[in-house]
Design brief:
It is a single chain. By secondary structure, the chain is mainly alpha-helical. It has two domains: 2-81; 94-125. The chain is built from four helices and two strands, in the order αββααα. Helix 2 runs antiparallel to helix 3 (65-92) and helix 3 crosses helix 4.
Length: 125
């Protein structure tokens, strides 16, 4: 009787605290729906930024439409390939947190570069 009342645990899966996952408490349809909604919203935001990038390149940077689409395609391809590379490195060699710190450092350096260039150009010319 006690064995029937005991909550079944799956020995294959663990929670984020590295404890055995309880079937009725961890995962399930709500977690899957949450992940699906987040992924859909992320892709919508990414594609909206890509279309805004095309408009920016054509209206303000005065690139031709073919050159704009080429730049945006290169940007999207690089972003998707770097995500695969980061996932591979996180699984094979480093921890996920370590890859996050490396990616954040690279992003910070890339975002600071235009600011530093604009300060340099403004002060020296």
């Amino acid at each position: 009787m006690d064995e029937e009342c005991q909550i079944s645990k799956s020995s294959r899966y663990v929670s984020w605290r590295n404890k055995p996952a309880i079937e009725g408490q961890h995962g399930g349809i709500r977690a899957a729906a949450f992940v699906l909604v987040v992924e859909v919203l992320e892709n919508l935001a990414y594609l909206a930024n890509a279309s805004n990038l095309v408009l920016y390149l054509s209206k303000f940077m005065h690139f031709s439409p073919s050159r704009c689409s080429n730049i945006v395609s290169n940007f999207m391809g690089t972003a998707f390939l770097l995500a695969l590379l980061g996932g591979f490195l996180a699984d094979a060699f480093f921890t996920t947190y370590c890859i996050y710190l490396i990616s954040a450092t690279i992003e910070l350096a890339v975002r600071k570069r235009p600011l530093i260039n604009s300060i340099y150009v403004h002060n020296h010319f």
